[in-house]
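Continuing the batch. This is chain 6 of the set; chains 1 through 5 are on the previous pages. Same settings as before, nothing changed between runs. Recording input and output for traceability.
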Amino acid sequence: MTDYLEITTRKLDLEEITQLVNLPECGAISVFIGTTRNNMNGKLVKRLEYEAYNNMAIKEMKKICDQIRLKWSDIRNIAIFHRIGEVQVQQSSIIIAISSPHRKDSLEAVDYCINEFKRTVPIWKKEWYDDSTYVWKENCECIHHEKKISTN
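Output for chain 6:
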């Protein structure tokens, strides 16, 4: 059982990442791919730019892996890769791949993983629009965001 965790500036390679979690005893590899969409709240999006607190991000990603292994004992390998820097429309910013002997565990674990990732991992994005304006965004699920809301 291995965790593959990476914050990178290079394009994410789905085949490479799924091969990391592929094992002969596993009948399932479940994958989540988060991509840049071309719109948000009625505005056309040109690209996203991601920044991360790398050391803390990797620590939080490892915590998520540990939590997954506690909840689903049949999970084998986990890969969580997130891209930072510019990510163009239709390109991947995050790929999560999780293997297990049967599909149910890996499917549930992938869903849990992306939700916890968005909630706890310190990665921020700048959303660039077609009119050359931008907005810094934080995941609304983020625990830091929740704290801001609750203190007002």
